[in-house]
Amino acid sequence: MNTLQKAKTQLKDAISNAFKKAMDSGALIKADMPEFIIETPADRKNGDFATNAAMAGARVFKTAPVKIAQAVVSNIKLEDTYFDRCEIAGPGFINFFYSEDFYASVLKDVEVEKENYGSSDFGGNKKINVEFVSANPTGPMHMGNARGGALGDCLAAVLKKAGYNSYREFYVNDAGNQIEKFACSLEARYLQLYKDDIEFPEDGYQGSDITDHAKAYSEEFGDKLVDASPEERKKALVDYALPKNIAKMQSDMEKYKIFYDKWFFESTLHDSGKVKAVVDLLTEKGLTYEKEGAIWYKNKEVCENILLNEGKTQDYIDKLELKDDVLIRQNGNPTYFTADIAYHKDKFDRGFETCIDIWGADHHGHVMRMKGAMDAIGYDGSKLVVVLMQLVKLVSGGQVVKMSKRTGKAIQLGDLLEEVPVDSARFLFNTREANTQMDFDLDIAVQKDNQNPVYYVQYAHARICSILKALKKDGIEPRSCGFDELKLLNADEEKELINHIASFEEEIISAAKEYDPTKITRYVTQTATLFHKFYNACRVKNVDNDSLTQARLALCLAVKTVIKNVLDMFNIECPESM
User: Fold this and answer.
1) Roughly how many angstroms between the first and final C-alpha of the chain, as a whole number?
2) Could you give the C-alpha distances from 477 to 473, 497, 547, in angstroms and in order?
3) What whole-number distance in Å separates Cα of residue 353 and Cα of residue 120?
4) Using an 8 Å Cβ cutoff, are 10 and 101 in contact?
5) Residues in contact with 53: Cβ distance below 8 Å, sequence separation at least 6, in sequence order
6) Does the reported pTM lie above 0.85?
7) How do residues 510-561 score in pLDDT, each as one tens digit?
8) Cα separation of 527 and 529, whole Å?
9) Which residue from 425, 454, 431 is spatially nearest to 256, judged by alpha carbons?
10) Distance between CA atoms of residues 85 and 168, nearest Å
11) What does DSSP assign to residue 45?
12) Strands of the 399-400 sheet, one edge to the other
């Protein structure tokens, strides 16, 4: 339990004991203890914590909140806690203020825990699968994949820091309709190199990468496929092009500092019979029917039952216009949805307690039916968490950029990483919540000044390293401080910064609970801001009092540790000089 958690526990106990003493003394009537909350005031000038205990007890004790607050304050004992005083405010709020011991203890926490500061066992080592990017392997990855990659990778890192056993996974759609379309597109581009009367499929993939693959195959193997059967020709072209696309994906992800625990191939689900098994299972449960030569899943029935159990009205459900889904097409091939059910079943079967998917916002309609399908096959759909990610626009000079300067074509992930430092991209994509649209400013991303958020944070770390080097030249090196020395840090800027440092573990846990790594990006940016504010107000060098110098150095080292722990967690460079 860190200092902040201890403080909260101490305060809750102190308030509860004060109520008991007030009742024992007759200041309050005997009654059951009211439920109350302890929270941080919006303005810390009003206290470090505040409680609504007096208002919560008004009905129970049949007394005005102010009188209840007076009874609590008269009977509260703050000795042996991290608080030294309290006061009544407004209609009966009770505000509490930290003692000097609190601030000293926080810095001791950081000194002792070092790289583990901020870590917790909150997650209980539960296995969580984070599946993200999972781009279609039939073409290059795009800007949306860049945002999804940063969000997914950093979310997995936050979950690990919060005590979960997180696992990164990329789902490769190397089977099904899109691969057939890929094959037909390659075949057409290949035959067009040798014949003039070849039409390109109306729904084919138009990207130049298809033409590039066809030309590359032709240059390497010539016209050997021109007279082959369509089946043989398409298979040969896919076997040639698809591994190259997947290898490019893996290369781009590694360049983006993303390393997956598993690249899961959809084809293995088909080969193992798991896709067919899902259809058989749903059929056994009476949740399929045949219509016009296809096998359908009773999605409407399943989702309606779930919504009714959640208390939704029939009128609300009718407005959703729920529909059934095809599992097996007339041609006998399973749909993408069927494979997706089998894939998520497989993830749960591998022992993951929670499965997190990061999808584009255009997949919002797929969320309910996938959760419902998990319930339908006997799993808990609530354990499937879908983070929906809004669109991202590339901006430069205030204008939306749609084409790469280098290629003159649509911006791809590879193009972005050639123009923007990887650390900058990873950090910037984590500055806005997934559910908000985002403008990614290319001009800011390449700047080496405080306009660039990652540079701003890195500079704070480098600045601390510079302070340490300068003091070392003067023969001053940091040492472990005693509590009395650390209590010298009583300037507002010092206390504000230490308060912020104290909340690091809670911020990590909150980000894990909400599946939102951007909370930590904002947290570390604020850490840098508060450090610069402290440094400008409180001299570290040339202080006559050695104990105060050492105390401020301890604070600098604590900030350095927090910044490094965040940047290391997000796999972002933490330079010592800039």
Assistant:
1) 36
2) 9, 22, 12
3) 19
4) no
5) 15, 19, 34, 36, 68, 69, 72, 94
6) yes
7) 999 999 999 999 999 999 999 999 999 998 876 788 999 999 999 999 999 9
8) 5
9) 425
10) 48
11) G
12) 399-400, 392-396, 438-441
